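ok here's Glycoside hydrolase family 19 catalytic domain-containing protein, seq below lol
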Amino acid sequence: MIQLTHRGGYQRFTTWHKASADAWPQEAAVDFEADPDRVGEAKYAVRSACFFWVSHRLYSLADEGDSSAVVDSISKVINPGLFQGKPNQMKTGSIGKRQENFANIRKWGGFA
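and the structure came out like this:
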């Protein structure tokens, strides 16, 4: 999942969630800025990841193929700090783990 950060992220997710309320009318009034812990609930965690994916047009990058370069281009949007400044063990380890996870999903047929 993608973690929301900063007040503005919760505000934008709340706005998107309300605008999409036809899909979940009983939950239209949930205010994630006022109660950010709600994003920790599974259904809201998935919705917030979908919100991030759509609002940042990550589907456009994903449509470029299933390569390591695409994984990196999406990772740069999700966590740009990994690609800024001097490389260090934490950064290279995180990038490597993303690549490894992607390769495993591909191997298991997740992109068939």
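fwiw The chain has two domains: 6-55, 65-107. kinda neat tbh
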